[in-house]
Amino acid sequence: MSEQLDRNVGGQPDRRMGEQVEEQGRARPMVGMAGQSASSASTSAPASSAAAATLERQRAALSVRGLTGGFTGSSGAGPGGADYTPVLHDVTFDAPAGRLTAVVGETGSGKSITAMTILGIAPRTFQRTAGSIFFDGLDLTACTETQLRRIRGGRISIVFQDARAALNPVLTIGSQLSDVVRRHRRGTPRPAARQIVLDTLRQVQIPEPVRRYQQYPHEFSGGMAQRVMIAMALLCEPDVLILDEPTTGLDVTIQADVMELIVGLGRSRGLSTLLITHDMGVVAECADHVVVMRHGQVLEVADTEAIFHRPRHDYTRTLIASSRLEDR
Ligand SMILES: Nc1ncnc2c1ncn2[C@@H]1O[C@H](COP(=O)(O)OP(=O)(O)O)[C@@H](O)[C@H]1O
Ligand SMILES: [Mg+2]
């Protein structure tokens, strides 16, 4: 169990994942279980702006308010304890439906912990001391584990950086994905689940999906494996898609393709997409608005155009300048 669990969460055994591993030895990554799924009608591209508006009303958005917390040391003591390390300070931002919200900031600024806290999968040693996360009329921080599990399974999906670590090496891609379908849409017969998986593999632009369905994770390149993870996230029909550095570690040309795919799928399905990245080039091209974080604090939130042309914070200017240097 523990070895598989560690693999599933990208080698970070302290994440509170145990309760999400529905079946030992099966792929865990997107936690595709039963949930209140969006209707299939709402997952197709809007035909008109009126349709788009309806779509946005149907999709739930995410709102993080005053999120504060830190890591307890070996004593387990919270704030005030000698070995408590504060990590998040009053983190506040919105991820509206139909929009791509980028969260940027240097390593260690609290981006991943924020994402994990939204999903209720932060390490056990992380203690939230204040703040709320609103989603579809619920405060996720006040939800029971059962409620949270349902939300993680069907309404908020996350894709991590290392796709292959999240896939089970001894099961075919097809069987892992159809498991997700059958958990998410209970009662789906196997042939129907297979068809849904094949359609989704096509949507994430995996060539020869019928052949790929039977292959194992090691037969997939990093970019193709990441497409599989995106497919897995979409099979849960989420309202919110969180992507934590989804293209880090991929070749630059592949990064651009995967990013284009994510942006296109998020938009056509009206999802609230939360993209965690340190790549300001990606932000400039893809994001509708940007949350700049540093040392666990939100420094500024603005639409993408304003961030690049009228940054209010020196740190934002530094981020932009360093990404331009990298481009040369
Ligand atoms: N399991 C952990 N135990 C203790 N501190 C941690 C743990 N995970 C992350 N941190 C600390 O929390 C802070 C925020 O980390 P993280 O959210 O991973 O940053 P980012 O994703 O922006 O790079 C960092 O200072 C990091 O060292
Ligand atoms: Mg991170």
Give a quick set of tags describing it.
single chain; 328 residues; alpha/beta; six-stranded mixed β-sheet; four-stranded antiparallel β-sheet; 13 helices; 10 strands; 39% helix; disordered N terminus; binds adenosine-5'-diphosphate; binds magnesium ion
What's a quick, concise take on this entry?
The chain has 328 residues and is α/β, with parallel strands linked by helices. It has 13 helices and 10 strands.
Task: Provide structural commentary.
There is one protein chain. This protein is of the alpha/beta class and 328 residues long. It is 39% helix and 20% strand. It has 13 helices and ten strands. It has helices at 2-8, 49-58, 111-119, 145-154, 163-166, 173-184, 190-203, 209-213, 222-235, 252-268, 280-286, 304-309, 314-327, and strands spanning 62-71, 85-95, 100-104, 126-135, 138-139, 156-159, 240-244, 272-276, 289-294, 297-303. The radius of gyration is 19 Å and the shape is globular. The model is unreliable at 1-57 (pLDDT under 50). Magnesium ion binds at residues 111-112, 244. The site of magnesium ion has 3 residues, from helix 3.
Mean model confidence by pLDDT: 82
Major β-sheet annotation: 6 strands, mixed
* Biggest β-sheet: strands ordered side by side in the sheet: 6-7-8-3-9-10
**What letter string, H or E per element, gives the SSE order?**
HHEEEHEEHEHHHHHEHEHEEHH
Helix content: 25-40%
Are there runs of 5+ residues with pLDDT below 50, and where? 1-57
Q: How much β-strand is present in the residues?
A: 15-25%
How many runs of DSSP E, i.e. beta strands?
10
Given helix and strand content, the structural type is alpha/beta
Shape descriptor: globular
Query: What is the CA-based Rg, rounded?
Result: 19 Å
